[in-house]
Specification:
The protein is about 30% helix and about 15% strand. The protein is globular and about 65 Å long. The two termini are about 40 Å apart. The protein folds into 2 domains: about 5-135, Aspartate Aminotransferase, domain 2 (3-Layer(aba) Sandwich); about 135-250, Alpha-Beta Complex (Aspartate Aminotransferase, domain 1), CATH 3.90.1150.10. It is built from 9 helices and 7 strands, in the order H-E-H-E-E-E-H-H-H-E-E-H-H-H-E-H. With about 250 residues, the protein is of the alpha/beta class. Strands 1-2-3-4 form a 4-stranded mixed beta sheet, with helices on one face. The chain has a 3-stranded antiparallel beta sheet with strand order 5-6-7.
Length: about 250
């Protein structure tokens, strides 16, 4: 989404804009840094869902974003821990976004929530963040290597890459194979590779991806979109030739 498209939709009473940093189905990176700089001169706050982009596209998140939510398991931290980073606005006399608690009973975090802190989970998130920052260059190179290997191995197949490939993270790929039903792919090749027809949030649904549909892609493309995502260590174990052969066998015979 272009920054201008967001700004055109602002009204005088718009309190908040909430935007994904990286789309979890296509891997497309949204221009959150540019949008943050534009909104700083307005009374509208910006929240960024950085579950997919945190530590992976770190420069964007140094922009003056009012609120950033992250999920620890995306960078190797224990499941069940995340964070909401809240920034004061210098242009508004260091004012914080007007957050209200959704749980009551204690005064932790300046009255925003009750309950005892899960110290092991918090320390796991902190350590994972340190490790990912230290290993970021190696992670990116390995993720790009697997991406190139996958695309090169599939050159004999007819497919459509979904999303702007000039603005994507290296570890997510959304592909629609021509004449190959996505559900048949999942069932037939499940022993070789684990992929999804959408995000984990909608894994129980067999309807076309709402993300691909909103991109105005043809119905056949949107309905058969397959989401590949990986951790770099998987580069050594993926047999791309076998994957390509499996896709070929799923095509209807002429």
């Amino acid at each position: 989404m272009a920054v201008e498209a967001v700004l055109e939709r602002l009204r005088p009473d718009t309190l908040l804009v909430s935007l994904m940093h990286v789309n979890n189905e296509t891997g497309v990176i949204q221009p959150v840094a540019d949008l943050a700089r534009e909104l700083q001169s307005t009374p509208t706050y910006l929240h960024v869902d950085a579950a997919q982009g945190y530590s992976k596209v770190p420069a964007d998140l140094t922009a003056p974003i009012d609120m950033i939510s992250i999920s620890g398991h995306k960078i190797g931290a224990p499941k069940g821990v995340g964070a909401l980073v809240v920034r004061r606005r210098e242009s508004m006399d260091d004012e914080r976004p007007p957050l209200e608690p959704i749980m009551f009973g204690g005064g932790q975090e300046r009255g925003l929530r009750p309950g005892t802190l899960p110290v092991p989970l918090i320390m796991g998130l902190a350590e994972a963040a340190k490790i990912f920052e230290r290993e970021h260059a190696r992670w990116q190179a390995a993720a790009l290597e697997l991406r190139a290997k996958l695309l090169e191995g599939l050159t004999s197949e007819r497919f459509h890459l979904n999303g702007d490939q000039d603005h994507v993270v290296p570890h997510i790929l959304n592909i629609s194979f021509e004449d190959v039903d996505s559900e048949a792919f999942l069932v037939t090749l499940k022993e070789l590779v684990a992929v999804a027809t959408g995000s984990a949030c909608t894994s129980a649904s067999y309807t076309p991806s709402h993300v691909l549909t909103a991109m105005d892609l043809p119905d056949a493309v949107a309905r058969n979109g397959l989401r590949f995502s990986w951790y770099p260590e998987q580069a050594q174990t993926l047999d791309v030739t076998e994957l390509a052969n499996g896709v070929g066998k799923l095509r209807p015979r002429a």
